[in-house]
Amino acid sequence: MHDTAGKPSPITTPTQSPMAAAEPGTGPADDEDETDVIGDLMGHYGKWQLLMTVLLSLFQVPNTFHISSSVYQAANKEFWCQRPPHLQQLPVDVWRNLSSSHDNCHMRAGIDWSQLSNETLPAQMEQQAASAAAADSANDGKLIACNSWEYATDDNVGNTWTSQWDLVCDKEHLKNVAEMFFLLGVATGGIISGYLSDKFGRKTMLFISAVLQTIFGLWLYFCSSFELYLTLRALLGLVSVSVTYSGLILAIEYVDGKWRTIAGMYNLFPLPISYMIISGLAYLTQDYQSLQLCIGIPGIFLCFLWFVVPESPRWLLVKGRIEEVRRIIEAAAVFNGRQLPPDYQLTPPTQESSSQDFTYLFRSSYLRRISICFLCIWFTMNLVYYGIILNMSSFGGNVYLNSALAGLVEIPAIAVAMYIITKVGKKWLFCATLFCAGAACCCAAITEGREDMLWLKITFLMMGKFTISAGNTIMPVYTAELYPTAIRNVGVGACNVAAGLALILTPYLSLLNKIEGHLLMTLLTAWSIFGGFVVLFLPETAVRKNAPSATNRQNAAKQV
């Protein structure tokens, strides 16, 4: 959910470079060279921008909590058909044998369990049960479906969706449906959030979405109806993705030039920390409702940032709200220790045509190539990234420790990706992350099913998580850089459709292990390698060390 799918493109302001206003299809955007009058006045990056972007990154915390909560709230539990009230002290294994409930979904029919007691010896109980079954010749050997179940209480999982609503046997698929509803909301919100943010403002959409996210998150704590729970999960996903994208674009529009890439990438740092925090909360609470309360409360405090965080000055300038822009620039300049010229002028820029639609992505050979490639890559990246995160409970070992480690390895992954892409082009690094993720998943698949090599499997999974996290950091930046500014919003919005399809499929990946133990990791391996090959068809981006000359700009325009 923290990809920049559906985000509005940065505002074009009067003094941007000519490449920023290039016609669709002329070549990659050149945002890292774009500066404007607002940045010149209040500073391209200073203490004010640092403070605001750090505050905005905090909105990633509840988003990460909500998207990863299903790992713990929907965790599988050991269960068995409910024992009669007077046999509650009977050992579970003995009860399973007596009732022939080997699949934990069916039990013997026609047995009068009142004839048995807890004090009866197991051999005698088996004989009595067999005699009772034989006496009822009509039901001899028949099994009936259980209508109630009991659950293990010493499994370090606690009360989950499974035990709350008996999501076992023929209802087990509803756990995946609950997660799919959330991710369906994420996919839908990603498509519409860019339009709403452009229309109503970044700050307005951010805080409306944050308030709704908090309301829905806390409502889930009190919800006892599974049908209502599904609806609230879908709405929660819808507004959570709007919080992500509105906050991200607001952070990007506080800066300009090369700082846009850096601000966009370090906006992701709270994600891995949040993964570690929620694994600790889940371990301490071991109850899906208590966990929901813990992850819903932080949103209350974030809503008070309304009085601290201003609207995007670049969006306000486009809308002609000059006085508001002046107040923000003056406050930022004072905070950054900059002296403003006494007679500076602000002129609303000429807005680019917004008539571009999906068909513009295929109107030139350059756009056709990058659009088809990015549709495949965004699908692959989301399938593999969330396929690892949301199936952590099915990989074996301690789910809390595994999830915390998965968050821990993402911190250096983001940092390394941020550093390297400032030194080399993004194409080969991006390609390498996907191939390395595929190799790690392949090694994990080889060790699948071998309990003595569980530690090695988890090691390979963490290596895969490290590399795919680095790729996930690069992907939105690379995408935005290759699309020309005039069509970037349409391009990234189309990519979000592919990402949404992957998100909807992700909850069902765990079912592959029930077909064949190696199937899940094999699938992730294949998609990672496929994504790496697709990246090879994309153009490289330039490594900007100095301001480009006019000749360099002309050469960039010939990359089609």
From TrEMBL:
Residues 1-37 are annotated as: Disordered. One of its GO terms (molecular function) is transmembrane transporter activity. It holds the Pfam family Sugar_tr. The keyword Transcription regulation does not apply. Keywords: Membrane, Transmembrane, Transmembrane helix. Residues 126-543 form the Major facilitator superfamily (MFS) profile domain. The keyword Chloroplast does not apply. PANTHER family: SOLUTE CARRIER FAMILY 22 MEMBER (PTHR24064). This is Organic cation transporter protein isoform X2. It comes from Drosophila hydei (Fruit fly). The lineage of its organism: Eukaryota, Metazoa, Ecdysozoa, Arthropoda, Hexapoda. The gene is LOC111604631.
